[in-house]
Known about the structure:
Blueprint: E1 4-9, H1 23-42, H2 45-51, E2 56-66, E3 75-85, E4 89-98, E5 101-114, E6 117-118, H3 123-129
Antiparallel strand pairs: 1-3, 2-5, 3-4, 4-5, 5-6
Amino acid sequence: MSVHSLAIRVYYEDTDFSGFVYHASYLRFMERGRTELLRGLAGDQSDLHRDAEGLHFVVRRMVLDYARPARMDDLLDIRTWTSELRGASMHLRQEIRRGDELLVSAEVVVACVRDGRAVRLPDGLRRALSPDRAAT
């Protein structure tokens, strides 16, 4: 699978009193990156939810490493890719970069659930997310 990239501009609302990006804002940026990755592979999550009879994705685990701060007006590149697929979960890697500079890296485990219970990832999505899939 190739790396998905999403450009995000840092706005005043994303920063704290020091002018640096507030740590929780990075979580929102990464959520947008994951959402756009899925949108590109499977369409809108609301359509996937409806067509797959109530399928949802929930973050089960997230480990972040904050290396350098971002500031207001920075243009960030949110990179997302699959590192591993299991029965009911996808293990993703994410990076937030400013140009070539790594700002934040994350390991994310996202569970596939229906009615509050883990369910197997749909086969079509599994194929699209496969880390073994050749970049297109």
